[in-house]
UniProtKB/TrEMBL annotation:
Keyword Oxidoreductase assigned: yes
Designated gene of the protein: DLD2
Compositionally skewed regions (Low complexity) per UniProt: 39-51
GO-annotated molecular function: oxidoreductase activity
Enzyme Commission number(s) from the entry: 1.1.99.40
Protein name: D-lactate ferricytochrome c oxidoreductase
Length: 560
């Protein structure tokens, strides 16, 4: 079998080149998300919950945030809460006096802050845009405390903001909420090489933290495409999942402690470095995934695993979702503790990747499904033996039809780009309807098929400009039963939206899945929480919100 020999010869090459392969570490450059660009669209029609924003002639690499439609227009049902005060010159003076440095306050009230303030008002997807006139950048926990207390005392609404790389509009204002940006708080406070405990400010960029840990043979237990821009405080506040959750677990499991500030200025000093601390309620968990609705995380303490010196990345083509499941089962069974990622991409995502940016795909021929497997272990020989046995098995049993194994770091990056490049590429035609869903694994892909059929029979999908929908595709974290259902479109269209929603949420709810597996609720999914949470759970969440933030100043109009 040609494909078998492809992998077998790759394995032979690895055995010959052990010494170089052994030391490969996987550090992927993050996509330049600030330069993502939406394509021209025709006659974009409005859609309250999904509309992205387009313009006819964006200069490549320099999108102007000013052309993004305001969230308050896309969501006309949202009204500014009159209980919040409007920002005055006196407020601005207070923040300037408090924070001292000129660069710590972006003041759009007393002067035209123009392009300086817009990146804080809008998100990288160009879907959400607020009206803030003030961005403050505290440089310490004490400053965050003073800022928040002042806002709370004066009924000024705020939005905590990290790297602003979220996917649900949670980190940008809707109206004139003050943006509290954490980027100046970017120090690593502590690292212990024996325990692997890292304590760092919330504003440290994920990739910076990971590079720091790499020098100490450790790894940050979270990895995602936006690592070059996102901040670890935001990662914790959104309980980001990423590409290696399968191996290292979630933020809820890895975070040992947090430091946070409540709206009344109280500093929650719970920066525990302990793995075990069984003394009452685990209150830090409320801030993890709390999306900045009860307080601002200012620092985290996190358990970081040892970095694996031996890494392998393989990319397979498979003929059915049944075979994908078999491959996943075998990977868990045979690679067990060295398996660090098992990602799924359908054939359509790979074709679109090629179509949009001409990317040469690793395998010749078409396969309905592709998987990317990564192993991370401590012993190359041991890992290679396991991998070889696994590959021989899946090829021999015809579970996998074709595959390649990276020979060096460049090839690893190239294989990873076939997965990580997908979200950005799908925006190429105009915009994307995005759904981030937890679904029982056996039915993970059925939703994509049903949705494709549904939209196709409604005459909405096609190759020509007559059809709004380019395709219906699925990819995601197979290892976590987390599907990213993406529907790239040429234009946003009420008819398309009606065909997708609420069908998609009902479909997921019927299977006891989650309507937001890892991206959170923000503004995009807030209206749909009831599909995944019972009335009792929502009531309990509201009680917590009211307890911590009685004035409701924290990230209003989102989440809850
Ligand atoms: O854009 C998406 O739908 C998914 C983004 C991210 O969670 C990923 O897994 O690449
Ligand atoms: Zn994801």
């Amino acid at each position: 079998m040609a494909c078998a020999s492809r992998i077998a010869s790759a394995l032979r090459r690895i055995r010959c080149a052990n010494s170089t392969f052994q030391r490969v570490s996987l550090i992927r450059p993050a996509p330049q998300i600030a330069q993502r660009r939406w394509q021209t669209t025709q006659e974009a029609t409005t859609s309250a919950s999904q509309e992205a924003n387009h313009e006819d002639d964006l200069p490549a690499g320099a999108p102007s945030a000013k052309t993004i439609k305001f969230t308050s227009e896309s969501y006309p049902e949202l009204k500014r809460d009159p209980k919040f005060a409007e920002i005055t010159k006196e407020h601005v003076t207070f923040f300037k006096d408090l924070l001292g440095s000129d660069s710590a306050v972006i003041d759009g009230l007393t002067k035209d802050a123009g392009e300086d303030i817009e990146p804080f008002n809008s998100d990288w997807m160009r879907k959400y845009r607020g009206h803030t006139k003030l961005v403050v950048k505290p440089g310490s926990t004490e400053e965050v405390s003073k800022v928040l207390k002042y806002c709370n005392d004066n009924m000024l609404a705020v939005v905590p903001q990290g790297g602003n790389t979220g996917l649900v509009g949670g980190s940008v204002p809707v109206f004139d909420e003050i943006v509290i940006n954490l980027s100046r708080m970017n120090n690593i406070r502590f690292f212990d090489e024996v325990s692997g405990v890292l304590v760092a400010d919330a504003g440290v960029i994920l990739e910076v933290a990971d590079n720091y840990l790499a020098e100490k043979s450790h790894i940050f237990p979270l990895d995602l495409g936006a690592k070059g821009s996102c901040q670890i405080g935001g990662n914790v506040a959104t309980n980001a999942g990423g590409l290696r959750l399968l191996r290292y677990g979630s933020m809820h499991g890895n975070i040992l402690g947090i430091e946070a500030v409540l709206p009344d200025g109280t500093i929650v000093d719970d920066l525990s470095k302990l793995r075990k601390n069984n003394t009452g309620y685990d209150i830090k968990q409320l801030f993890i995934g709390g999306e900045g609705t009860i307080g601002i995380i200012t620092a985290i303490s996190i358990l970081c695993p040892q970095r694996s010196p031996a890494m392998n990345v393989a990319y397979f083509g498979l003929e059915s979702f049944e075979k994908v499941q078999q491959a996943f089962r075998e990977a868990k069974n045979q690679l067990s503790e060295i398996l660090s990622a098992f990602e799924l991409m359908d054939g359509r995502t790979q074709k679109l990747l090629h179509k949009a940016n001409g990317k040469k795909l690793p395998l010749e021929g078409d396969h309905p499904f592709y998987c990317l497997i990564e192993t991370s272990g401590s012993n190359t020989e041991h890992d290679s033996a396991k991998l070889e046995a696994f590959l021989e098995y899946v090829m021999g049993e015809e579970i996998v039809s074709d595959g390649v194994l990276a020979q060096d770091q460049t090839q690893m990056l190239n294989l990873w780009s076939c997965r990580e490049g997908i979200p950005e590429v799908l925006g190429h035609w105009g915009g994307v309807y995005k759904y981030d869903l937890s679904i029982p694994i056996s039915e993970l892909y059925s939703l994509v098929e049903e949705m494709r059929e549904r939209l196709t029979s409604a005459g909405l999908v096609g190759d020509s400009d007559k059809h709004p929908v380019v395709d219906v595709v699925g990819y995601g974290h197979m290892g976590d039963s987390n599907l990213h259902l993406n529907i790239p479109t040429r234009r946003f269209d009420k008819e398309v939206e009606k065909a997708i929603e609420p069908f998609v949420y009902e479909w997921v709810a019927k299977r006891n899945g989650s309507i937001s597996a890892e991206h959170g609720l923000g503004i995009a999914k807030k209206a749909f929480i009831g599909y995944s949470r019972s009335d009792t759970m929502i009531k309990l969440m509201k009680q917590i919100k009211n307890l911590y933030d009685p004035n409701g100043i924290m990230n209003p109009y989102k989440y809850i």
